[in-house]
Amino acid sequence: MRRLILFLMPLMIGFSCKEVKNNNKEKKNLVTEKITEDEALHLLHKWTNAYLTGNANPLHEVLDDSWVYSGSTNGQTTDKVATIEEFSNADYKFHDIEYQELDVRLFNDIAIVRGSERMVIVSKPDKDTTTLKLRFTDVYKKKNGKIKAIATHSSPIIEE
Questions:
Q1: How many domains does the chain have?
Q2: CA–CA distance, 79 with 128 (Å, rounded to integer)
Q3: CA-CA distance, 121 to 136, in Å (whole number)?
Q4: Which 3 state secondary structure label does DSSP give 120?
Q5: pTM for this model (two decimals)
Q6: Backbone phi, then psi, for 117, in 5-degree steps?
Q7: For the DUF4440 domain, which residue ranges apply (predicted)?
Q8: Do 18 and 81 sit in the same domain of this protein?
C-alpha cells in the first residue's frame, strides 16, 4: 500500500502543476487589447467620411455585426444590416457633419465616445436642406486588432 501511495503522489502533483499552468495560460488569453483615443477617433472619422461620401462600403468595417442604434423617436432600434440598407437606398445625402464637445473614455478594449453633432442633410430630388443637432454616445470595442462600433444612442437637441 505504501508503494502505491508513493507511486501515485508524484502523478497527482504532476497533474495539479499542469492544471495550474493551464489556468495561467487561460488567464493570459483573457487579457484584452487596449484601445487608444486616436484609434477611437479614427473610427469615428472613418464613419463620418462614409456618410459624407455616400459610400456604404466602409460601414461594413465600422459597424460590428452586433451593433445596435437606439434613439429613434418611436423607441425602436436599428441593426447594422438595416442601417446599411437604408443608407444605400437613401434619397438624401449628408452635406456636412461637425462634432463638438467630443469626449473619449477608455476602458481597456472599450471606448465610449460622446459629444454633439450637427448634420446638414440634403434631399436628392428637391435639394431641400435639413439641419439636425444631436447628442450622441458611441461604444467601440477592439477585438483581434480591429475596432468596431457595437452600440450608438442619440437624442435630438431642440433649440427653443
A1: 2
A2: 27
A3: 17
A4: strand
A5: 0.78
A6: -140, 150
A7: 44-146
A8: no
